[in-house]
Amino acid sequence: MPSDEPNDRFVGFDAPILAPADATVVAAHDGEPDHTARRSPLTVLPYLLTQGSRLRRGLDALVGNHLILALADSGPYILLAHLRRGSVQVDVGDLVQTGQTIGACGNSGNSTQPHLHVQVMDTLDLLRTRGLPMEYRDYLEWPRGAKASRHVDQGVPGHRARVQPAA
User: What's the number of domains the chain is made of?
Assistant: First the structure.
C-alpha cells in the first residue's frame, strides 16, 4: 500500500454536500488544507504526530473546514465537518434549504481519509456538546445480524445497523 494516496482516489472526495434540513448557518469555517489520505497504520503514525500542532491552532484546525446549522434559534445544531478547502458556499446568517449544495466533501482537520462527519448536537460549544439522535427518512435498514432489510419511512437506525437510501 502506498505511503499516502491522493484524495481523488476516494469516491466521496469533492462530492457535493447538501443541506440536510432547512436551517440557519450559525458557523462557517474554510481555509484549512486537505491532507493526502492515509489508510495503513504505518502511514497514520506520522500524521498522528501532527495532532499537537493542529490542537495548538485551535478547534477549527481539528474540525477542519466546517459548517454548523441551527434547526431553531436555540438548537439543535448540525455540524458538517472535514469539508474540502474552498468549497464552503454559504455564510453565517444564511438560510439554507434541504438539498441545497453548501460545500464539498474533503479531508481537512482531524481526518485521515475524505469523508463527511455529521453530528447533531445540543449546543454550539464543541468541547461540551452532547450528541443527539439523528432521524432519517426513506431508507433500508439491516438490523445487526439480519439477512433481510426493512423499509423505514422515518426513524433512527438501530445500533450497528447497516442502512442505505431506499430509492
Answer: 2
pLDDT of 49 strictly over 80: no
Residue 131: strand, helix, or coil: strand
Cell of 25: 448557518
Domain co-membership, 65 together with 39: yes
Per-residue pLDDT tens digits for 134-159: 999 999 999 888 899 999 999 999 98
113 plus 149 within the same structural domain: no
Q: Rounded distance, CA 140 to CA 129, Å?
A: 30
pTM (2 decimals)?
A: 0.87
Query: What SS3 class is residue 56?
Result: helix
16 and 97 co-located in one domain: yes
Domain contains 1: no
d(CA 148, CA 2): 37
CA dihedral sign of residues 92, 125, 17, 99? negative
Show the domain range for 152.
135-167
